[in-house]
Amino acid sequence: MPRPTPFHPRTAELCTSLAYKEWAGCYAVCRYDTYHDREYYALRHQATLMDATPLYKYEVRGANAVDLLSRVMVRNFAKHKVGRVSYVCWCDRDGKVLDDGTVTKLDEEHFRVTSADPSLAWLERNARGLDVTITDVSREIAALALQGPLSRDMLRPVVGAALDDLAFFRAMPVEYAVAGRKVPGIVTRTGYTGDLGYELWMANDDALLVYDAVMESGAPLGLLPMGLDALDVARVEAGFVLASVEYTSARSAFIEKQKSTPYELAFDWMVQLNRGPFIGQDALVAEKQSGPSRRLVGLEVDWNEFEAIYEGFGLVPHLTTETCRLGVPLYQSGRQVGYATSRTWSPMLKKYLALGTVEASAANVGTKLEIEVTCEYERHLATARVSPMPFFDPERKKA
Length: 399
Hints:
Blueprint: H1 8-14, E1 19-23, E2 26-31, H2 37-45, E3 48-51, E4 56-61, H3 65-72, E5 85-91, E6 97-107, E7 110-115, H4 120-125, E8 133-136, E9 141-147, H5 151-159, E10 171-178, E11 181-188, E12 197-203, H6 207-218, E13 224-225, H7 228-237, H8 281-290, E14 294-301, H9 303-311, E15 328-332, E16 335-346, E17 351-359, E18 368-375, E19 378-387
Parallel strand pairs: 3-13
Antiparallel strand pairs: 1-2, 3-9, 4-7, 4-8, 5-6, 6-7, 9-12, 10-11, 11-12, 14-17, 14-19, 15-16, 15-18, 16-17, 18-19
Helix pairs in contact: 2-7, 5-6
């Protein structure tokens, strides 16, 4: 049975839909209203506040903390400065992705790792012989995601003017001004929406105080709580992959075909090969030389063709407002060359978008593919062109 997060007393009061799902063993709100539309538009025009506590969180401390993380991940942390946050993935010895997450350098010998799946055993197994301590703080630290164009204005009264100097993918210690006193925490300029945003970290005992302070500060500017349904639309617009949807962890894959490498997931930019040995290095060096056999791509589905399929049955085109995660085939010249994983209608861009994996020869931007569309139990095809990602990339995200 799922457990409540420290924010549950507040989110339960606001969740009139009673729509929940389990996220890492915790209750997670899908949407607060009957539909998630209000939350989505608040995210893109004002700001939203989401409970991100279920993320797995690990504190890595010690003289060899840098060595451990550089050994198990595809990025080298030797030159990272205090306050830097990195998005990164880690692989098995065959170069197949196990998970992805963030690494924040909190002090010279202190890092915080977040992940989608439990990663404590993996870290501990590779820490043998190193001067390092790994602590699972997943259920000791609460987290909030404050995202949207007005998020900085809403958060400034709670953490102070220093927020204005916090750069993209950077972290800073703060004292949250709550209930007439200050409580310690950390703010990172990160998020999973592709917009301007912050993630707030604090001890469980302070969670409700911080939640109330942020909601009070943001209320005049239109702050709304947000669930996972609106987030799912936003992350597709941002071109962000979701574990167990865009890729299957090598740890849980049944066959080799289900596994993915960083290059297949378009994570080329995070792989640093020319350094000391790390897990999966030899396999990734070889793949870098030969090139990946397939690639993750963004797709724009031709709306006129999609609409025509439904009109052929005397129906109006139908899409759910939620992101669809049911995989469908992708074709080129009558031959299947891949599959689409996440599909959604973008209210901001007024486009039908998808993320998919295709053969490398079909991954170039502008390539014309066909996506399977089922209508009235019949299978049809509509054009889907490979598009640059992210689909939605506002300047305010990094400004």
